[in-house]
Amino acid sequence: VDYSGTLWANVINRTDNPGREAVLAGLTTELRQRDGVLVLGSLGFENAYALAMKRARAEALGIRTLDDLARHAGELTMGGDLEFFSRPEWAKVRDAYGLHFRAQKQFQPTFMYNALASGEADVISAFSSDGRIAADDLVVLEDPRRALPPYDAVILVSPQRAGDEAFLRLLRPLIGKILVAPMREANYSVDRDRDKRTPAQAAAELKQKLGL
C-alpha cells in the first residue's frame, strides 16, 4: 500500500494536481508502462493533509472552505505539526488562498489537538483519516482550488504478481471497501488515551466490521 500523492510527486515527479481521479488514472498508466507495477485500485480512503477546525467555531464564523477561511485568517491562529510549515503542501495552500494568519504556532501532534480544544489555536493541520477528527467533532475544510494533493491509499502489485489472477482475486475485495469514517475509528482506537487497541487488534476489528 502507498499513497497516490506520494507516488505522483516523488516517483513520477509531477507537480500539478489534476484531481483525485486523474491522479489515480495517470499513476495507473505510468507505473504499468514504466515499471510494470499494477495499481490495483484505491482502498477507499485518503490520508491527506487537511485544515480542520472545531465544528462550532467554524459554523459560528461561516467557514466551510479554505476560501472562507482566508477571509477570516487575520483574526485566527493557525497550528501545525512540527514540519507542516516547512512542507510544500503548506506553501501551495497558503499561496493558493492567500492565507495570512494572526499567528502561526507549532505543536507536537497530540498537543496540537489539545490546543484546538483549549482555543490556543483556531485551525490546525490534520490528516484526513485521523481518528481525532470524529472524536473531537472537527470539520475538515473543503479545498475548492485543489491546492492540497490527493493521498488515496492504493494497492500496488509487483510485476512478478501483476498477472497472477488467483492472487489478484484475493486483493480485489479490498478495493473501495475501506472508507474514511471506519478508518478514522480504527486509527482513534489506537491513538486514544483510554482502552487503547494495538494496531493488530484495530485491524482485526476493522476487518470484522467491514465483513472482509
Task: Give an overview in words.
There is one protein chain. The chain is of the alpha/beta class and 212 residues long. It is built from 10 helices and 8 strands. The chain has a 5-stranded mixed beta sheet. Helix 1 (4-11) crosses helix 2 and helix 9 (180-191) packs antiparallel against helix 10. The radius of gyration is 19 Å and the shape is globular.
Concise description?
By secondary structure, this protein is of the alpha/beta class. The chain is 44% helix and 18% strand. Helix 9 runs antiparallel to helix 10.
SSE layout:
Layout lengths: L1 E2 H8 L8 H16 L2 E9 L2 E6 H7 L4 H7 L4 E4 L7 H10 L5 E4 L2 H10 L4 E5 L4 H4 L2 E3 L11 E6 L7 H7 L8 H12 L7 H12 L2
Parallel strand pairs: 4-5, 4-6
Antiparallel strand pairs: 1-8, 2-8, 3-6, 3-7
- Basic shape: globular
Q: Which segments are poorly predicted (pLDDT under 50) over 5 or more consecutive residues?
A: none
Strand order of the largest sheet: 5-4-6-3-7
The SS-based structural class is: alpha/beta
User: What kind of sheet is the major sheet?
Assistant: 5 strands, mixed
Number of helices: 10
Annotation, overall tally of beta strands: 8
Rg from Cα: 19 Å
Core attributes:
10 helices; five-stranded mixed β-sheet; 18% strand; 8 strands; single chain; alpha/beta
